[in-house]
TrEMBL record:
Gene3D superfamilies: 23S rRNA-intervening sequence (1.20.1440.60). PANTHER family: FOUR HELIX BUNDLE PROTEIN. This is S23 ribosomal protein. It comes from Fibrisoma limi BUZ 3.
Length: 119
């Protein structure tokens, strides 16, 4: 396993950033500006909070921001369900996004657990 020296080295940050980029691109033409903007904000919040917590250089703070990122990821997943329910996203796309979000949530939980056990 490679040594993590900066937040960009974290796979969960990379996955969170990719998720946010995907949401931005997917919703570029969405006319429901309110839901589109909320989904963009919650998706960006995931890698942003991982980065902010990492940069604080304090384990307790890092864990707190990982939990915030996990919450934002759950918020995004709820918004994906809503977007499918109101036909802004097709079911197949929605399920793929939900699956990706669940993977990120699991990665965050594992990182939280590791940080709690080690430090």
């Amino acid at each position: 396993m490679a040594k993590v020296e900066q937040f960009e080295d974290l796979i969960v940050w990379q996955e969170g950033l990719a998720q946010a980029i995907g949401i931005y691109k997917l919703l570029a033409d969405c006319k429901d500006y309110s839901l589109r903007d909320q989904m963009r904000r919650s998706s960006v919040s995931v890698p942003s909070n991982i980065a902010e917590g990492f940069e604080r250089h304090a384990n307790k703070e890092f864990i707190r921001f990982l939990r915030i990122a996990k919450g934002s990821n759950g918020e995004l997943r709820t918004q994906i369900h809503l977007a499918v329910a109101v036909n802004l996203l097709d079911a197949e796309t929605g399920q793929a996004l939900i699956a990706k979000s669940r993977v990120i949530s699991s990665m965050l939980q594992n990182l939280i657990k590791t940080r709690l056990e080690r430090f």
